[in-house]
Amino acid sequence: MTDFVDVKVSYRKLSDTALIVCNEAQLEDICVAHAIGELEEEVETYQLDFDTHVEIRPLMTQCSTQHVVVAIQIVGADSRQATDCGEIAVPRSFRGILEKVIANANQERDERDSIAATYEESFQVPFLDVVLDEPLVAPHLVHLSHVKAVSAAVDEFGAAHHRLMVRSSLMFELPPARDDVRLLWSGLAQEIDHAQGLGPVSSIVRAIKSLRCQATIPADIRLATYRTLEDLLQTQRWQATAATLREATKALDDVTVAK
């Protein structure tokens, strides 16, 4: 079967948000024309993490129930690609066209308001590529007590990070430490709270990228924190993560800044 489905991809650089929408009328026509099965009217929404929503429609065939993707929304789409974090369980063809749209949007330099503008492209995707090989499964939610513990530990780590920057600035007579880093960590702590057990992927990715260029944090503490944030991406070992972050916070406060 070589039928194709029109897919529109919208990307907004300002919010780093992508929206992928399939032409549902075409999906229905293909199912009828080839007697594939009955495409259910009801749309099911799966939240794969705090930043990713996938809408599917069940396809009832003679042998089984399959799932057809009709829409995907991804916050932090470009950030994920840049760090290979938080890959979503959707057909690979969607990832390919998303990468192309983001690359083209980033090359747009003519419009004065290109950062705030929404960049759009349309594609034709084979019907079989919008059918999931396996049904989507909602992620396991982290227990709220662990969420609160990690959120508090992240905020405390951010405060210690900022204190270290202030000490370094005073010691080396540099300009006062900016609040950007403090806001980054407090923002991550807030999103962990708001996600209520789901991984806030885009915020974690921003923190990971920031850690890579933070010279004020000793290398061993930076590496431990980096690995801890990767654990948060997988929504695993959150209880241990809080303990590791508390240890890292104490280690930052114990760092002696010397000329």
Produce a short descriptive summary.
The chain has 259 residues and is of the alpha+beta class.
Low-confidence stretches: none
Structural class: alpha+beta
Radius of gyration from the CA trace? 22 Å
N-to-C series of helices and strands: EEHEEEEHHEHHHHH
* Number of beta strands: 7
- Estimate the mean pLDDT confidence: 85
Please give the share of residues in helix.
40-55%
Distance between the termini: 70 Å
Strand content: 15-25%
Shape designation: elongated
Question: The biggest beta sheet, please?
Answer: 7 strands, antiparallel
State the helix count. Answer: 8
Structural overview:
This protein is an alpha+beta fold and 259 residues long. The chain contains eight helices and seven strands, in the order ββαββββααβααααα. Strands 1, 2, 3, 4, 5, 6 and 7 form a seven-stranded antiparallel sheet that branches. α6 (201-211) runs antiparallel to α7. The chain starts with a strand and ends in a 5-residue tail after the last helix. The mean pLDDT is 85.
Per-chain topology:
Layout: E1 4-12, E2 17-22, H1 24-33, E3 38-39, E4 44-49, E5 52-60, E6 65-75, H2 77-83, H3 92-107, E7 118-126, H4 144-171, H5 180-195, H6 201-211, H7 219-233, H8 238-254
Antiparallel strand pairs: 1-2, 1-7, 2-6, 3-5, 4-5, 5-6
Provide tags for this entry.
46% helix; alpha+beta; 259 residues; 7-stranded antiparallel beta sheet
